[in-house]
Amino acid sequence: MYSIKMYGIKAEDKPYAIKWAKEHDVQISMTEKVINEDTIDDAKGFDGVNTLQVTAIPHDAYARLKAMGINQIAQRSAGFDMYDLAEATRQGIIISNVPSYSPASIAEYALTSALNLVRRVPTIQKRVQAHNFTWEEPARGQVVGEMKVAILGTGHIGAHVACLFHGLGSKVIAYDRHPRVDLNFITYMDSIEAAVKDADIVTLHIPLRNENVHLFDAKMFKRFKHGAYLVNTARGGLVDTKALLEALDSGQLGGAALDVYENEGSYVPKNMAGQTLSDELFQKVLNHEKIIYSPHVAFYTDEAVANLIYGGLDATLDVITHGDTPNRVNAL
């Protein structure tokens, strides 16, 4: 019987993991802890490793796993920017992800975020809490169906987002290095700069790589249409948060919905109630009247939780039994 060490497990994950283990006749050992310097040796004696990491693993973890006879790490998310793929490859470690676990979950959340921004729902709620029931400009919204929406990245998630906005009547434009031919209502632009130039809403659905860290910086925000809205349910590192705050304060951007933050690893997913946040930039994000922030929950639905567990374990077992997985993200 094969055995798998599962890191980063929450109580809600356990029923799905237990169900999968019984169906595949695999022994699993679960821990809430993630892979770090203190926990890496807990993988000794297991055939595979499965985890949900937000922060990077130790640089020497790849070599240490290899010494244990483990040649893979299965990440239970689509994002894999927390891994050093080059070092993993050097050590013969296969890194895999779950590329499509519930595109609809994230897509619907991106649309919800945009609607909340455009219809000024947070402002309305604050006014109601203050017993201000008047109809005045701060609470007046716009019709999303009459807006131009730029979808940056039209993979599984971005394509679903495009369909949702199209269903509302929005004009959908996009940028992707590999344009889709099956969605003929999308007008593809030649560059990201061209896509954001006239868009009322810009929504991000691209992976984070070394070459696009802070892609959305002060220079890029100046290319946005004045008063445009930004929605980021992708990766926090895509956005230069300081530049975003400046763009919001100047009025260049009308608002932003952030489900991710570039330095979220110290806070998400943790209960920080009653604790002081040492990150002043993050505190500014939380306090900003033009920002709707949520703690990386766009994916968080019943369907996604189940599919992340099943997908991650499937990839782990693929490598154990066949030496590879279709969901591998690094070359060997």
Short description:
By secondary structure, this protein is of the alpha/beta class.
Explain what the structure shows.
The chain is an alpha/beta fold and 332 residues long. It contains 11 helices and 12 strands. The strands form 2 sheets. Strands 8-7-6-9-10-11-12 form a 7-stranded parallel β-sheet. It has a 5-stranded parallel β-sheet with strand order 2-1-3-4-5. Strand 1 (3-6), helix 1 and strand 2 form a beta-alpha-beta unit. Helix 4 packs across helix 6 (156-168). The longest helix is centred in the C-terminal third of the chain and has 21 residues, at 302-322. It is globular and about 65 Å long. 42% of the residues are buried.
Average of pLDDT = 96
Give the biggest sheet: 7 strands, parallel
Structural class: alpha/beta
Which runs of at least 5 residues are low in confidence (pLDDT < 50)?
none
Taking all Cα atoms into account, the compactness measure Rg is 21 Å
End-to-end separation: 27 Å
What share of the residues lie within helices?
25-40%
Beta-strand content estimate: 5-15%
Shape: globular
Number of helices: 11
Spatial strand sequence of the major β-sheet: 8-7-6-9-10-11-12
Spell the H/E element sequence. Answer: EHEEHEHEHHEHEEHEHEHEHEH
Please tally the β strands and state the result.
12
